[in-house]
Every structure is written in structure tokens, then in C-alpha cells.
Amino acid sequence: RRRSRSHFGSSGGSARARACACARVCARALAHACVCVERAPELMAAVASTAVPVEVGGGDHARRIHNCDQRAPFIELEHPALPCKLSVEQRGATDPGFVQGTSSCLWPVATHFARLLCDRPELVRGLQVLELGAGIGLVGAAAAALGARRVVLTDCDGAIPLLERNRARLADDGVANVEVVCVNWGDASHHEDALSSGWGAARGGYDVILISDCIVGGFDTDRLWQSCHALLSKRASAQLIMAYEFREEWETVGMFIHSASEAASRLLCSADGDASAHIWCVVRMEYSY
Fold first, then answer.
1. Which of 100, 114, 237, 281 lies at 20 to 30 Å from 54 by C-alpha?
2. How far apart are the first and last CA of the chain?
């Protein structure tokens, strides 16, 4: 059992203090889960390159909720690695199209996570990728545009209409390797649907599973893990990559990783991240059965 000294490149005393506290908490949670923690310098460099200050002033302050614009009708993502500008629809809480119980608008971690994939396209290129709790589908959209063989966006029933509209928007922009499937976490019949549906059925499981900001206190992370385990390939090269904003929910994080550690004979983990004015983490799990 080893603990990594996570490096957070934040500026400003209070942000650095929170980052250090987050690193200690993650180390304790990972150690409690009895996993092997390995530093991944190239992954941390990608995290640092995507860290941007959160603007709290300026003319759009009234539009910003949770440090991002959740009221704009569309979210756009541009990056040199992308073949085109990505545009996905969102519906914030004040929008008539908002569906209660879904994440139909952008959360800050999704933008950072998508940019991290842009900096590390080899994580998804040529692979079968599934996103759990996809929300508006920004992270999965980035994976698809970066050359994933196939990307399946999943979420609960109420989120599917918005995901389908975003799938159609992406196809219109030339990103046609995206499918949408309803997956309620822990539902075995939905797992079967995700493994068998579409033009590129992943009967042996997906090479990569992406999770963006689903590790939250009050969320049923036990059922989330059930879906991860059911849908991820059992090949040693399979990876679960998740990003989340740290909200002092270290026990929730620790228990999720503990579940992962019990499912594999060896679990390699790296947990790092910083976004200046708020803390986020990336956990990349490689399985060796």
C-alpha cells in the first residue's frame, strides 16, 4: 500500500490550502480502500494545463451558477485536438425544458474533463467508450470527436430526450459515432441493453467508462459501481476514468474506490486535480484481473 503525494498547481493561499486538504483526504480514502496508488505525471500535467481561474466578476456574473453558465441554451467546446467546435444543448433550472431529477445543464467538472481528454486523446482513440450519468453529454461528445471507435451516452429515462437531441446535433456536425441508451444505475436489464444495442455491440464490455461529477453525497454510488462493474471490460487494459468536484465527501469517494478495489485483483489509481477556485479530482483506474 502506497500513498501518493498529489501535486496541485493552484495559485493563492486559500486555494492551495484546500488543495492540500483534499490531497490528504484522498490519500486517506484510497489507503482505507487498500488500493495501490501510483502517480501519473503525464495525467497530472494534463490536469494542470486545463486548470483555469473561475471568473466571479464581469458582465456575465448574473448568468453564472456553480461557476459556469447554466443559462445559455448551448454549450460550446473548442480545442486544437478537436476536428470541429462541439455544441450541445442544455436546459438549466429556470428553463421551461428543465427536467427535475436530471443533470440537464453544464457542471464545471465536465468542461475540465473534456479538455483533459483533448490533451490525452490516446485515452479514448479507437476504443469503445461509455459514459455513465452523461447529463448533456459533453464529455462523451469530446471522446467521440477525438476518435473513439464508438461512444454510448447513458443516463436515466428523463435525461434521454436531451441526450438524443445532442446526439443529433453532433451527427449534423460530423460526429456520428455516438449512441444514446437509457441506463439506470444498477439495473441489470439496462446493462444488457447497453452491452447489446447499436451497431458496435460491446458484448465483452467497454474499453473505457467515463464518469463526470457523479460522486456526490446522497447519490447511490453503490448502484453506480454495479453499473461500472457490469459494463467495463474485464481486460487488463480496461479503464474507468472519473472526475468530480471535491465537496468534502471523502467517505463517499472512499467507499466507491473500496468497491472497485474488491472487484479487481490489483487496482492502480491516480487521484489529482485543481481548478484554481474550486477543487476537482481525476481518478483513473486500470484493472488487472
1. 100
2. 18
Helices (H) and strands (E) in the chain, counts: 8, 12
* Cell numbers 502506497: residue: 2
In this structure, what DSSP letter does residue 122 have?
G
**Bridge partners, 91 (sequence order):** none
**Cell of residue 237, nine digits:** 487494459
SS3 state at 188? helix
The reported pLDDT for the residue numbered 189 is 96
Alpha-carbon distance 233 to 162, whole Å?
A: 28
Mean pLDDT, the chain, integer: 74
Residue 214 cell numbers, joined: 457523479
Which whole-number Å values give the CA distances from 269 to 6, 257, 286, in the listed order? 12, 9, 7
Sign, Cα dihedral of 178, 46, 74, 160: positive
Q: Give the number of C-alpha atoms closer than 13 A to the C-alpha of residue 191, restricted to the C-beta side.
A: 19
Query: Is the overall model pTM greater than 0.85, yes or no?
Result: no
Confidence band for 128, pLDDT divided at 50, 70 and 90: very high
DSSP 27-40: HHHHHHTT-EE---
- Written as nine digits, the cell of 216 is 456526490
pLDDT band at 265 (very low <50, low <70, confident <90, very high): low
User: Using CA atoms, how far apart are residues 151 and 140, in angstroms rounded to an integer?
Assistant: 6
For residue 53, pLDDT beyond 50:
no
Residue 65's φ and ψ, nearest 5 degrees, are -125, 135
Virtual torsion, Cα 120, 123, 128, 133, nearest 10 deg:
-80
The count of other CB atoms within 10 Å of the CB of residue 258 is 17
Residue 11 grid cell: 495559485
Task: Tell me what percent of the residues of the chain surpass a pLDDT of 90.
Answer: 38
